[in-house]
Specification:
It is built from ten helices and seven strands. It has 264 residues and is of the alpha+beta class. β3, α5 and β4 form a beta-alpha-beta unit. The relative contact order is 0.14. One of its GO terms (molecular function) is isomerase activity.
Length: 264
């Protein structure tokens, strides 16, 4: 997966575990668990003793630290999943109802909806394209709504603008012709290169270049980005299955098919 935002650095997690462990071990055995220890009331000698206890405990039983880290990770994952479910529910209509500007693979009226957020410059997005074509050819009750989002810099913005401009010019067919040209192209993306690819794809290159910086293209890309942020997307590609499950990364054909079946 092409990542957008960095993960939490591990040292911060380690510091949190050690601090929590020190506080817990300093509390009397009969102290109410709901009351946190007030570390500001410890004397320097008491703090030194706490550090010694922690060192001895970790030296004699290293699993204390690994168990604490595992517990924190589990808690963080659960919180993340809850947040994802809440976001999907809040934006259920946005994810299940295609916009007039959305390109759709498969049957437009299908009951099963997969939304793919992708960047035309993302190598993983390019790699998964054949699997998406295969899935929609095999499953006639499946539609894949494609939402292009430029997250990898200026080259991504140029190619994303060209794709949306192609859709505005000629609808679904023009979009997918331009998509095939862009996502199989290894030349550095420039406006002139987009003009050349548009001509190869049977489109009006001058109109496409003009529309790329127009208000319609800007509004569509902004709406895609807003929805991506709203559901907590942090990389491309990201797939959303029937507004119930999010799977980030270049999932292979078998895993995509399994997720589709599970979310019907």
């Amino acid at each position: 997966m092409t990542s957008i935002s960095p993960r939490l650095p591990r040292p911060r997690l380690l510091h949190a575990v050690l601090a929590a462990g020190a506080m817990a071990m300093a509390m009397p055995a009969n102290a109410p668990r709901a009351v946190a220890a007030d570390t500001t009331s410890f004397t320097p000698a008491q703090r030194q003793e706490i550090v010694g206890i922690m060192r001895d405990a970790l030296k004699n039983d290293p699993t204390i630290l690994s168990d604490a880290i595992a517990a924190l990770r589990s808690s963080a994952n659960a919180a993340q999943q809850n947040a994802a479910r809440s976001a999907l529910e809040s934006h259920r209509s946005d994810l299940l109802t295609p916009n007039a500007s959305d390109a759709i693979l498969g049957t437009a009226t299908a009951r099963t909806t997969v939304v793919e957020f992708y960047d035309p410059r993302c190598p993983y997005c390019r790699k998964v394209l054949p699997d998406l074509d295969r899935l929609t050819h095999e499953d006639h009750d499946l539609r894949i709504i494609e939402k292009v989002i430029p997250v990898l810099g200026q080259g991504s913005l140029i190619t994303s603008q060209a794709l949306v401009a192609a859709f505005i010019q000629g609808g679904q067919d023009a979009y997918f012709r331009m998509q095939r040209a862009i996502m199989s192209d290894s030349t550095a993306p420039t406006v002139e290169r987009m003009r050349a690819l548009a001509t190869q794809s049977g489109l009006n290159a001058t109109t496409l270049a003009t529309d790329m910086n127009g208000p319609k293209v800007t509004a569509i890309l902004q709406a895609n980005m807003d929805l991506a942020r709203a559901i907590g997307l942090d990389g491309t590609p990201t797939f959303v299955f029937n507004a119930r499950q999010i799977i980030p990364g270049a999932v292979d054909y078998d895993d995509l098919k399994k997720a589709i079946a599970q979310n019907r």
